[in-house]
Design brief:
Outer membrane lipoprotein wza fold like; elongated; 3 domains; three-stranded antiparallel beta sheet; five-stranded mixed beta sheet; alpha+beta; wza like fold; disordered N terminus; 22% strand; 236 residues
């Protein structure tokens, strides 16, 4: 004979809390016995602890981070906002300090505008030598980067959401501190999300930044240009 089994749907954690809250509000009143079972306050507290433990056990674990996001961000390409010094050892009058404009260009004396965004300093040196080939006696030029800042955007439950300019390798903890730090009354710092574009593909990372700050995690997540950091709010 075949027996059919039907499993009851498990109660959700909010349902359990609602039931226990109702019992706690009425626990001073006599609780009638039903089939030899009495609900006591101590039992309610025990169930509360068990429910919290089950919820913690069912929480998803964060996936391990790939090695590339744990290394300091370094780049060799020039980009908008970079400040570069161009030095001509044989023609000091041509020396200049330039900031790469929003269109990725700079302006050179006797040459005009050239696009430098996306070039390395070494490649730019070669291009400048080519452009000044007929004007230079000493075929030498040096390009050095004096300032290289890039934007990171921090939103959500922080004190000063907005754009953060990073002029050095910066971790996610440092970026959040630059945005004023967590709003301690509402920030869910265990589930911070970072979204970035990598070779035209959008990638997202969920991070327990609270564990990083308190020393429970040795992970160091380095931000990159145009990263979007979102700190979610606690749900009450």
């Amino acid at each position: 004979m075949n027996a059919s089994h039907q499993s009851a749907s498990p109660l959700s954690f909010p349902d359990v809390l609602a039931f226990l809250r109702d019992r706690l509000l009425r626990y001073r009143q006599p609780v009638p016995r039903r089939r030899g079972f009495t609900v006591r306050p101590g039992m309610i507290l025990a169930v509360l602890g068990l429910a919290g433990l089950l919820t913690a056990c069912n929480s998803p674990r964060l996936a391990p981070l790939p090695p590339e996001v744990q290394r300091p961000y370094t780049r060799v390409e020039l980009r908008e906002g970079d400040v570069i010094r161009i030095t001509f050892p044989g023609a000091p009058s041509l020396n200049s300090v330039q900031q790469v404009r929003q269109d990725g260009k700079i302006s050179l004396d006797q040459v005009g505008e050239i696009t430098v965004a996306g070039m390395s300093p070494t490649a730019l040196e070669a291009e400048i030598l080519r452009l000044y080939d007929q004007r230079l006696v000493t075929k030498q030029v040096l390009v050095t980067v004096e300032s290289a800042a890039y934007p990171v955007y921090v939103s959500g439950a922080v004190l000063r959401p907005g754009k953060v300019m990073a002029n050095r390798p910066m971790t996610i903890v440092e970026a959040i501190m630059e945005a004023g730090g967590f709003d301690e009354n509402r920030a869910k710092s265990t589930a911070v999300v970072v979204t970035r574009e990598v070779d035209g593909v959008t990638k997202s990372y969920q991070l327990d930044v609270k564990a990083m700050i308190r020393g429970r995690s040795t992970t160091r997540f380095y931000v990159r240009p145009n990263d979007v950091i979102y700190v979610p709010s606690l749900v009450w």
